[in-house]
């Protein structure tokens, strides 16, 4: 009768993913981790640029305004 176990059928399914509509859905945890990683990269870049600009302005103010 050529009856196979369910586990074998499930193992075969993930290998065949040519159709993007049939792909495995990501869990909310996976989506959150990916979003956090992307935000982390963007925020670190933004944070670094802001810090450098603030330091440049600080040195400009200090050079123009010498407090005694």
Structure report:
- With 68 residues, this protein is mainly α.
- It is 69% helix and 0% strand.
- The chain has 2 helices and no strands.
- The longest helix is centred in the last third of the chain and has 37 residues, at 28-64.
- The mean pLDDT is 75.
Label this structure with key terms.
68 residues, mainly alpha
Annotate the secondary structure layout.
Blueprint: H1 6-15, H2 28-64
Largest sheet: none
Count of individual beta strands: 0
Radius of gyration, Cα only, in angstroms?
27 Å
Beta-strand proportion: under 5%
| Secondary structure: helix percent | 55-70%
Number of helices: 2
Low-confidence stretches: none
Shape: rod-shaped
Q: Regarding quaternary structure, how should these chains be classified?
A: single chain
Q: How much is the average pLDDT?
A: 75
Structural class: mainly alpha
The ordered string of helix (H) and strand (E) elements is HH
Distance between the termini: 96 Å
């Amino acid at each position: 009768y050529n009856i196979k176990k369910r586990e074998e059928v499930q193992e075969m399914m993930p290998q065949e993913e040519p159709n993007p509509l049939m792909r495995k859905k990501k869990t909310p945890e996976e989506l959150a981790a990916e979003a956090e990683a992307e935000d982390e990269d963007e925020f670190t870049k933004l944070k670094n640029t802001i810090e450098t600009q603030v330091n440049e302005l600080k040195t400009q103010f200090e050079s123009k305004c010498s407090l005694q």
